[in-house]
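We treat protein structure as text, and this decision shapes the records that our systems exchange. The tokens are whole numbers drawn from a learned vocabulary of local backbone shapes. One such record is reproduced below, unchanged from the form in which we store it:
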Amino acid sequence: MQAVSEGARSIWDEYRLLGEVFRGPATVAWNAEHVISGRHARLTTVHAPPMASAVTAEAVSHAFRRAAERAREFAHPDHLSIIGIAEQAGLPVAVTMLPEGALLSERLSDQPVPLGDAMKRVSQIAHAVAALHGLTPAASGPAGLRHGYLVPENLWLRPDGRVALLDSAIHAAAAHAAFSSGFPVAPSPYVPSGDEAYAPASYGRDVYGLIALLVRLVSGRPPLPGQLSPAVEALPDVLPASLRLELLEAATTPGSASAPNARSLAVHLAFDCAWIRAQDRTRGDRDLLEGEVLRGAPSARDTAARPAPDPSVDDDMLRRWARAYPTAGVRGGMAHSPASTDGPWTRAGHALAGGLARLLFRRGDSPTVRAEQAPPAARLVIRLGPFVDPGTAMSARARVRGAWPMAAVLAEGGRYYVQVAECSDRRRAEELADRLRAAGDPAEIHPL
């Protein structure tokens, strides 16, 4: 279709309407097919409010056409540009050719999307919105545009998973013109309430829409109109606290000087998405608790090839890590050996060894797990082991922590053990050891 914006013309000979896909306060978007090429297209036209006068209809049409002409000049990889503006029955019609894919609304269901996936997708959309706002140099065309109506029906999902913006500015421009003419606008979950919700300079409203879209993906349903802040507070606890505060600020005071813009939100989402994915990957490697790395038993080849740990080097690494992260803490704890009772480590400080395991195991190192002197009142101790390295010992510890939460790893004579329990009764000790052996763990009873 020839891209023109003046003169009356009919487009029904060129496009066949397939159905209505979205209705805004003063606009209607249709799914259409180009008759000659068979390509899918989107036709968006003005739909003046009922009982609107000719003056109001003209004002809405003028605002729609002006916004469409500006959006047509904007080019970005994640933005589907308007290729032409025609007229039908005196009303402007914006035409956008659609690539392979589908509307995001058609791919959404009532099932929540994993938080990491939702953050990644919204971050990608936020980068496109930031380019639309003129906050990044990755686009060409007029700067300072806004979308104004970020709903799933105005987002196009490509086969590669990337989302592109549809109908930038035109729905919001028509809605603002209708509202300025005295017609009320129905509230939307993706647009904040207020008289300036669709104002041309309301860039914060796009950020509000991005947050509402994140809530929609994570929870499986859109927030109630005007209730975005409670919906953000109800997001999963794994959401980083700094990101939650930023989302709440943008949802409470959209467009304020202190609220985040689209670019900062996109970057924050991307970094925190990477952090959450790293946590998921760590849990997939059997890192069950923060500060602990629980690895599987190494193969015989790995055990033979691994050199014996150097206690002096490992102790230096432990001390350096403890100085770098003085407030880090983990659940459970490590044990002291009698030789280390006069060292710099306290019982609370040895809890840091579990956190150090995360740092060192990812680098392939083997930290030294120091032993702890047992309480003098106990006479017998039930142990698992011996193990050739701390990783295998910590894996064994993970297996028994459900029944014996005080299980701790200790080192003795270059070997590693898991101290499961202490008792003064020999019969009770034998029962505990037999129970562990029945589960496949090498349990032994040692006197203290």
Q: What stands out?
A: The first strand starts at residue 15 and ends at 23. The two ends are 89 Å apart (CA to CA). The longest helix spans residues 262-284.
